[in-house]
Design brief:
Blueprint lengths: L1 E8 L3 H10 L5 E4 L16 E2 L13 H11 L6 H20 L14 E2 L9 E2 L5 H15 L3 E3 L2 E9 L2 E9 L4 E12 L20 H8 L4 E2 L4 E8 L9 H4 L3 E3 L20 H13 L9 E4 L5 H7 L1 H10 L9 E10 L2 E3 L11 E3 L4 E2 L11 H19 L10 H19 L7 H15 L3 E2 L1 H17 L14 H25 L8 E2 L7 H4 L1 E8 L2 E8 L13
Parallel strand pairs: 1-2, 1-9, 2-6, 9-16, 15-17, 18-19
Antiparallel strand pairs: 3-5, 4-5, 7-8, 8-9, 10-15, 10-20, 11-14, 12-13, 13-14, 20-21
Helix pairs in contact: 1-4, 1-10, 2-3, 3-10, 5-14, 12-13, 12-14, 13-14
């Protein structure tokens, strides 16, 4: 058994920021499914929001205006005090990374450059060309190495060891050695990312299986608002590789088959820079109504920017197009379609990352504070990771008296035995159902029936079929024996969590009879504040998922019509 004061699960920005904040104060270690520099945070392209006021015409920007844009963008489902705290701390986060040497793009006078992003009243998105997540991740990892934080990479956490209202540690599958390990800790922090791979067409890395959210659910912790799934408007046709919102922020146009800038029909004031839920639905409507191209796409045209601007501001996007589409966006438009991108919902936490388990925290995309509500604004996800990773670390450090807690080896031993028995049962069913068949059925169901547009009959059918797939999971068998880097075993173990997450998404969407943000019901197309201005909470008890609802903090701004 391996012991540390604090275990941070997840090597992306939220996890690393929490670990850096704890380093030197407590014995902290990071557990990551991949090397931290391969974490999905590195895929973020366009930028990070902060009311710095650096851009021309943005001197009047403020954290309060940033908060209002975020609340409006969330379709008024975000908890407003939490949003204001995130926006207040945003400039500090940028300044901190400047001190650490992050190579942000800059204006001529030397200030951090900021570009327009969707749903924002000012150009407040700080960026490093179109590789912002990559730059921030490398900068933060340098700080982790500098502080000597222990990293256990190639470990996939599979189980939380919870007993008597406390987390005693966790069980992880060591991919390098093909065996389970137990880790004891006085505090555990989950920063495990989103659940994009429950969908078929996603910008997410293959590691984004929602495993952290599922483990919390199985451990008896509530998850919140999982029915709110963001579909990014612009992913590359065929691969669903992300094409950053920064491409539209720099002046790219969305064009249909009739050579029309069709966003004038849906968001006449903000056009391509309306919030993502509106732009994604607009693109899908153009495709559904026959104004897209055969194959289900429209064009993102960067040619109005000119070659010099593309090479300076969007070099990564150009390279993606050259490598994966065989075209040069300097000369040709990019074929794009919406794809699953982000999970607004997650593990229910307060603004400090605390959950209902006293010594268990969550931060980043796997957590739901909630600062994104029903729809996240572009540029706020990187900010979320850095702000709440920091706040988690500060809260744990402040709890000096709680470090007297001693994790029980018996609790960890029991969970390790249960996990081992589950794998042995799968290995004993070598002729059983292959996990990949259930996984592909699940991903297709979510994509086709609980996607951008939703209807009661389709969602209800999907929910019932997901439930049957969950029953079928008991017959899954593993064909290959244990050994180093056996991904069949890892995928079989994670599939159970994918099924739980998918069922919560579908059942939550079925119950929410309104349209709000990313959740659009064609049979209930209007927002219904009287009945549905509330958070969805889901819990697992005895293998059954139950639902309840909680109030939304509207202390700063009353809900109003959301127009762009």
């Amino acid at each position: 058994m391996i012991k540390h004061d604090v275990l941070v699960v997840g090597g992306g920005l939220a996890g690393l920021r929490a670990a850096v904040g704890l380093a030197g104060q407590r014995d902290v270690a990071v557990i990551s499914k991949v090397h931290p520099l391969r974490s999905h945070s590195g895929a973020a392209q366009g930028g990070i929001n902060a009311a710095m006021g650096n851009a021309p015409g943005a001197a009047a920007d403020s954290p309060e205006k940033h908060a209002f844009d975020t609340i409006k963008g969330s379709d008024y489902l975000a908890d407003q005090a939490a949003v204001l705290e995130m926006c207040r701390l945003a400039p500090e986060a940028i300044n901190e990374f400047e001190r650490w040497g992050a190579p942000f793009s800059r204006f001529a006078e030397g200030t951090v450059a900021q570009r327009p992003f969707g749903g924002a009243g000012f150009p407040r998105t700080c960026y490093a060309a179109d590789r912002t997540g990559h730059v921030l991740l490398h900068t933060l990892y340098e700080q982790l190495v500098r502080r000597g934080v222990k990293v256990y990479d190639e470990r996939a956490v599979t189980r939380l060891a919870v007993a008597d209202g406390r987390c005693h540690g966790l069980v992880a599958y060591n991919l390098k050695q093909g065996r389970f390990e137990s880790f004891a800790a006085k505090f555990c922090v989950f920063a495990t990312g989103g659940y994009g791979r429950v969908y078929r067409d996603s910008t997410n890395a293959l590691i984004n299986t929602g495993s952290g959210i599922a483990m919390a659910l199985v451990a008896g912790i509530a998850v919140k608002d999982l029915e709110f799934v963001q579909f990014h408007p612009t992913t590359l046709l065929g691969t669903n590789i992300l094409i950053t919102e920064g491409a539209r922020g720099e002046g790219g146009h969305l064009i249909n088959r009739e050579a029309e800038r069709f966003m004038a029909r849906y968001a006449p004031r903000m056009m391509e820079l309306a919030p993502r839920d509106i732009v994604a639905r607009s693109i899908q409507t153009e495709i559904n109504e026959g104004r897209g191209y055969a194959g289900g796409y429209v064009h993102l045209d960067l040619r109005p920017l000119g070659k010099a601007r593309i090479l300076e501001r969007l070099p990564g996007i150009r390279q993606i197009c050259l490598d994966f589409a065989g075209l040069d966006p300097v000369e040709e438009p990019i074929p794009i379609q919406p794809g699953q991108h982000y999970s607004m919902g997650g593990i229910d936490t307060d603004v400090r990352g605390r959950t209902t388990i006293d010594n268990f925290y969550a931060a980043g995309e796997c957590a739901c504070v909630s600062v994104h509500g029903a729809n996240r604004l572009g540029g706020n996800s990187l900010l979320d990771t850095l702000v709440f990773g920091r706040l988690v670390a500060e809260d744990i450090i402040a709890r000096q008296g709680d470090f007297s807690f001693q994790p029980q080896e018996a609790v960890l031993g029991r969970h390790l035995a249960l996990q081992t028995a589950q794998l042995e049962a799968m290995l004993g069913r070598a002729g059983g159902v292959a996990q990949r068949h259930i996984r592909e059925s699940l991903r297709t169901l979510l994509t086709e029936q609980v996607g951008i547009f939703r209807h009661e009959s389709a969602i209800a059918d999907a929910a019932e079929r997901i439930r049957r797939l969950r029953e079928q999971y008991a017959t899954v068998g593993c064909r290959t024996p244990p050994g180093p880097f056996n991904f069949e075993i890892l995928q079989a173990l994670e599939l159970e969590g994918l099924l739980y997450v998918a069922e919560v998404i579908a059942q939550g969407a079925l119950r929410r009879r309104e349209s709000r943000g990313s959740h659009f019901r064609s049979d209930y197309p209007a927002r219904d504040d009287a009945q549905w201005l509330k958070h969805t909470l889901a819990r697992l008890d005895g293998g059954e998922i139950s639902f309840s609802y909680a109030e939304v903090d509207t202390s700063q701004h009353a809900p109003q019509a959301r127009t762009y």
